[in-house]
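Researcher: We plan to redesign the surface later, but first we want a full-length starting point. Tokens attached.
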């Protein structure tokens, strides 16, 4: 996802990275990556899984269709994304079933900062006003942004960022 040439990144799973290397490709369409935010193994923490389960309940109660059970986590920082695998920019496919959510004021979903009492979730589902808020969020310094892409997404290695930005600016 791009906004004023600020991208959303994530680390590729080992299987996706292997496919990217084997195909010697500048991008990879990912349509079947499992949603893992509710799994203990993702963060290696029962507390993290419990947190995302409570976030699931909260987002459902607020009638949001984006939730940890149907979304992935990305970062505005390729270095943070690279901690999870090869850093790639994320480009959701299609116009429907694409949504984003982030913490008001930015930062991480997990771990929860000790100073945060109650954190509001901001979400975007593609309206023009939402796109403006998403654009602002993508400018955040290492903010986590949850994303839902029902039709999958294109993953472009961050090594191609400069070329991609040049093309987008034309």
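Model: Full-length starting sequence:
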């Amino acid at each position: 996802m791009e906004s004023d040439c600020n991208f959303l990144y994530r680390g590729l799973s080992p299987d996706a990275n292997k496919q990217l290397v084997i195909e010697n490709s500048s991008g990879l369409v990912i349509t079947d990556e499992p949603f893992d935010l509710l799994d203990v193994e993702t963060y290696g923490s029962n507390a993290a899984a419990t947190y995302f389960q409570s976030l699931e309940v909260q987002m459902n109660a607020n009638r949001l269709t984006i939730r940890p059970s149907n979304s992935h986590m990305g970062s505005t920082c390729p270095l943070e994304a690279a901690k999870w695998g090869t850093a790639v920019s994320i480009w959701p496919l299609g116009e429907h079933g694409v949504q984003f959510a982030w913490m008001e004021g930015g930062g991480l979903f997990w771990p929860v900062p000790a100073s945060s009492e109650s954190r509001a979730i901001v979400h975007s589902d593609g309206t023009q006003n939402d796109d403006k808020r998403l654009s602002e969020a993508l400018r955040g310094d290492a903010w986590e942004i949850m994303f839902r892409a029902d039709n999958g997404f294109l993953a472009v290695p961050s090594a191609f960022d400069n070329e991609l930005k040049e093309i987008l600016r034309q």
